[in-house]
UniProtKB/TrEMBL annotation:
One of its GO terms (biological process) is intraciliary transport involved in cilium assembly. InterPro entries: IFT74 (IPR029602). One of its GO terms (molecular function) is beta-tubulin binding. The lineage of its organism: Eukaryota, Metazoa, Ecdysozoa, Arthropoda, Chelicerata. GO terms for cellular component: cilium; intraciliary transport particle B. Residues 119-298, 370-493 form a coiled coil. Keywords: Coiled coil. PANTHER family: INTRAFLAGELLAR TRANSPORT PROTEIN 74 HOMOLOG. This is Uncharacterized protein. It comes from the Eukaryota.
Length: 520
């Protein structure tokens, strides 16, 4: 009761509350029986007994908990060690990759030395690579410095723009009612002038479309005139043939000669085709022989496998290079967008300053700011042009590298199966040899026909030179050429006149626009 009043709890113990009964390890012993002996086997399971059991189990759990905590601490330390080892492994892996690349380069140089290359040539290659690396680093540093300068210029322009806007706002706040009305009227005038500019641009586009339509008509007319001239020439020749047929109705030798001439022309064309085919087949045979010699050498095949491995390394390098280049291009695009925004803001500020100059209440110090802004705008436009050119160069380099990679992949696909290639080349050799023999026989036959036809052609040429109609046909062709030249000169004069008229219209429109801007 006293403990309950004072608020202090009595400590729980595993001992029983009764002092008359002895305590054992298993629990309370039963009280004495009527015979005066204790019942050792009988056990009383009261509250204190269960509290003792709970205490013993709590102690066991605490011991297990302590053991597990120790194990957790040990595991944490091991995980920390594993993390350290992982970092070391990553660093060692990077070093290993670098050493592998160095080893590959050294192996390449050793292979070249074994093949018979000079050390001076290898030194020149190494110096070229070093120079390329130095140039690349210099270009990267220049690009980085240019980007920093552009950022600084952009920040300075933003600050100046903010100052200009603050000045404009202060000037607007100082305006009277009349000046505000004038300012609004000038804004409306500016909008009207912008609309007139758009209308003039549309008119210029219409005139350009008319010009292109006129040029297309001129080209169509030229094509029509040429077609008509060709038709007339064909009619003339047909009439000449009819005339010759009427004159030479009795003699059929000339018809035979014409047929022979046609046959000779066909034979010449056929012979030229055969000669071109023979040259192609000889080139193919040489290429096949070179490839067969290449595949017979075991050392070259081993070098080819080494080249494949090097190509794989090159592909991995190219993927990393393209990813880095894409990142740089994205960064340049972001910078270009920022510069475009700044240039648009500058143009707007310049327009507002021009409006304020017409009012006449602007101080003399703003003119210097305006000139500086114009100069900076021009510099920004030049920088934009340079960045765009660099972007175009990077895209062309990307296209060239992709084309080279495609060629390398095609060669890899071709030379992957050496056995199949060897069989294909042997079949090609057999087929080409057969074709060459057939072509040689055909060439021999054709040469005999050519010799017979050449003699006949000579006789026909002599007879044509004696004919007066042949001379008349040549005169007609010269007259046609002169007529075509005259027609072309007339058309050039017409186009120049049209261009002068269009220029005059454009000049008049620009004069009107300038007068509207100046206000007189």
């Amino acid at each position: 009761m006293d403990s309950a009043k004072t608020g202090l709890a009595r400590p729980i113990s595993t001992r029983p509350l009764s002092s008359a009964r002895a305590m054992t390890n298993t629990g309370l012993i039963a009280p004495k029986s009527s015979r005066g002996k204790t019942a050792l086997r009988r056990q009383i399971q009261d509250k204190s007994y269960f509290i003792g059991l709970l205490r013993s189990k709590i102690n066991e759990i605490n011991n297990e908990k302590n053991v597990l905590m120790r194990e957790c601490d040990i595991m944490g330390k091991e995980e920390a060690r594993i993390g350290v080892y992982r970092q070391k492994a990553e660093t060692l892996a990077k070093e290993l990759n670098d050493l592998n690349l160095d080893l590959i380069t050294y192996n390449e140089f050793i292979d070249r030395i074994r093949m018979g290359d000079d050390i001076n040539g290898l030194r020149n290659i190494i110096n070229d690579i070093k120079n390329e690396n130095e140039i690349l680093t210099a270009n990267l540093e220049n690009d980085f410095s240019q980007l920093k300068n552009m950022e600084r210029i952009a920040k300075a322009n933003e600050e100046e723009l903010q100052k200009i806007l603050d000045n404009i706002n202060t000037i607007k706040s100082q305006f009277t009612i009349e000046q505000r009305a004038e300012y609004e009227s000038m804004q409306s005038m500016n909008e009207d002038l912008g609309r007139e500019c758009l209308s003039l641009k549309n008119e210029i586009e219409i005139w350009n479309n008319k010009k292109s339509a006129i040029e297309s008509k001129i080209t169509n007319d030229e094509s029509i005139i040429r077609m008509e001239m060709l038709q007339l020439i064909s009619k003339l020749r047909h009439l000449e043939r009819q005339k010759n047929e009427l004159i030479n109705t009795d003699s059929s030798e000339e018809n035979e000669r014409g047929h022979l001439l046609a046959q000779v022309k066909r034979d010449n064309a056929y012979i030229s085709n055969l000669e071109s085919k023979i040259e192609e087949y000889t080139k193919l045979i040489d290429d096949v022989n070179n490839e067969i010699e290449f595949y017979r050498d075991g050392e070259k095949v081993a070098k080819f496998s080494d080249l494949k491995q090097k190509e794989k390394m090159h592909e991995s390098f190219m993927t990393s290079f393209t990813s880095e280049r894409d990142k740089l291009l994205s960064q340049t695009e972001v910078v270009n967008n920022e510069i475009n925004d700044m240039s648009s803001k500058l143009s707007r500020a310049l327009k507002y300053l021009a409006m304020l100059q017409q009012i006449g209440d602007v101080s003399s110090g703003t003119y210097n700011i305006l000139n500086e802004l114009i100069i900076q705008k021009r510099k920004l436009e030049l920088d934009l042009y340079k960045i765009r050119q660099q972007k175009i160069k990077a895209e062309t380099d990307k296209d060239n590298l992709s084309a080279k990679i495609d060629k390398v992949q095609e060669n890899i696909n071709l030379y992957s199966d050496i056995g199949k290639l060897k069989k294909q080349m042997e079949l090609k050799l057999a087929n080409t040899n057969k074709k060459v023999e057939n072509i040689k026989n055909e060439i021999a036959q054709v040469r005999l026909q050519i010799e017979s036809s050449n003699s006949e052609i000579r006789e026909i040429r002599l007879e044509l030179e004696r004919n007066p109609t042949y001379a008349e046909v040549k005169q007609l062709e010269s007259e046609l050429k002169s007529l075509l030249q005259v027609n072309e000169t007339l058309r050039s004069n017409d186009s120049s006149r049209m261009m002068d008229e269009i220029k005059n219209v454009a000049l008049e429109s620009t004069k009107k626009y300038n007068q509207s801007l100046l206000g007189f």
